[in-house]
Amino acid sequence: EPEVTQTPSHQVTQMGQEVILRCVPISNHLYFYWYRQILGQKVEFLVSFYNNEISEKSEIFDDQFSVERPDGSNFTLKIRSTKLEDSAMYFCASSESPTGAYGYTFGSGTRLTVV
Amino acid sequence: GDSVTQMEGPVTLSEEAFLTINCTYTATGYPSLFWYVQYPGEGLQLLLKATKADDKGSNKGFEATYRKETTSFHLEKGSVQVSDSAVYFCALRGGNKLVFGAGTILRVKS
To answer: Are A113 and B47 spatial neighbours (Cβ–Cβ below 8 Å)?
Structure first.
């Protein structure tokens, strides 16, 4: 069964450093998403991306965050200057349609720890 | 805005017990509804979904029915197994994104 692949599975970084989280969505999916889950809290939407543009973003997704599809397969989330409160599990997801009529497929996540 | 409310956990059951995890939602219109499961150390997996009122989603013995009148999508399973121990998230599609509930931890004892 096709899956969304995320790397690395765990990243530790110092406060103020830049991090890039990587995702390979399912190949025929056109809509891409990032969510995050702070430990013990609910899963929160960050951003959706289609046709090389952000289609929607949440209040969390401020100027410190950016997304990119640098080639035909990868989808990345960059945090420019990490803060302690960015420590969370970050999930990438993709879907065939914007409505998720066939479901959204999530990756296994990257656990980001900012120290 | 759109929101999802789930019953608080953890829910602890013995093997073969009946499971209900309550989920209610607030949304404009009639959103698609989902249950996702997160096993320890893993990502979110789609468990089941329903796209319109009175639809029943089912998978792996789990069921949930989209109830428009009560704005609910409760998850049920007739006989749980130890392997069902996980965190269960109810979610709705609002616009072009999913809105999740807080998650309910299920622990099944043998």
So the answer is: no
